[in-house]
Amino acid sequence: MFGRGEKKKPVYVINGFLDSGKTDFYRYTMAQPYFQTKGRTLLIVCEEGENDYSDTLLKKTNTVKEVIEEEAEFTPSALMALESKYDPERVLIEWNGMWPFRDFKIPKAWQMEQQITMVDAQTFSMYFTNMKSLLSDQLRNSDLILFNRADGLEDLPNFKRNVKAVNPKAEIIFEGANGEIDVTLDEDLPYDLNDDPIVLNNFGFGNFYLDALDHVERYLGKRIRFKAMVMKPGGIPEGSFVPGRLVMTCCAQDIQVLGFACAYDKVAELKEQDWIEVTARVEKRFVEAYEGEGPFLIAESVEKTDPPKTEVIDFSNPDE
Questions:
Q1: Could you give the CA distance from residue 304 to residue 314 in angstroms, rounded to a whole number?
Q2: Contact between 167 and 145 (Cβ < 8 Å)
Q3: Which end of the chain is more exposed for a tag (fewer CB within 10 A), N or C?
Q4: Distance of alpha carbon 91 from the chain centroid
């Protein structure tokens, strides 16, 4: 039995579609000196591709491999049976990319430590267009999203933008044959950072939100103007609201809000879901809802306005 005072077993999960590089990533990691541990590692493989784990590697790293080929067999009770059989110090799971990750469940005795999603950059556009729901399910809660085989592709900033819309907090890395590729949105922004104010259309607002999360320093003291919907969520400072936009990251059932807290001396006069045009100055402050510091807006003017032609941002039309 798992006692109340016992430490939970750390679980590391890697997901992605077949041949995205999951096994290669785990094999490389397991071979590193920092991976070595006195206890046993349980490796659960839910999808076997062309590559596999050699007996030499498993023996050297004190790892036992179990294969679960059917989604219906991946249950907390089945995992607890493996826990009782091997008593591992930690658990590695290579998830089947065709299984919805929302169905992923582990025993209470285990604790999710890290989720990594592997993406083949050469096929990302195809999957994002044709299997967007399943791919977004993989990306949504990942701590690290690693694009491999990214050599020679010109659309990497757009890949980053699409992924950030699904999971703004994830670390995103692009790798080619010779190592990491630096991908920023700096030269791909659909507005001029020197404008005063910087006027944002739908596409521009989405890009501003994603870019400011990573590079708030480039916006400090600058003025921005945009249309937004009035929102008054919890966790923001008194005397502020969120001028936000809705973004469709996957499908109509998967819409979320983009927006930063904004100080305004007439917040009480604003009605939720009213459309407004905001001109505001960008600062950086601690906000409880952010769970740390982040972009914070100081409203200079707030005027009621008509809704934009397209109320939901989908990052597909730079002209809106």
A1: 24
A2: yes
A3: N
A4: 22
